[in-house]
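It would be a great kindness if you could assist me with a short task in structural biology. The matter concerns a single protein, recorded as an amino acid sequence and a row of backbone structure tokens. Kindly check, if you would, that the fold set down in the tokens agrees with what the sequence suggests. Thank you for your consideration; the sequence and its tokens are set out here:
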Amino acid sequence: MSLLKIPFILVSAIGIHISFTSPSPPPSSKEKVVPSSLEFFVGWLLKLRSTELLRVGCS
């Protein structure tokens, strides 16, 4: 019975790998856009709040 599960587990793993793999390579450093000050501040604030929420959630 357990040997019958192996092909299904492999197909599932391959499908997950394919769906999570990006179809194109990441952009080069020349193509990346510098964030505006508002975007930088909002990103910083979200990072700060997420670490704070994680600490509260782990307590």
The chain has one domain: 2-25+34-58.
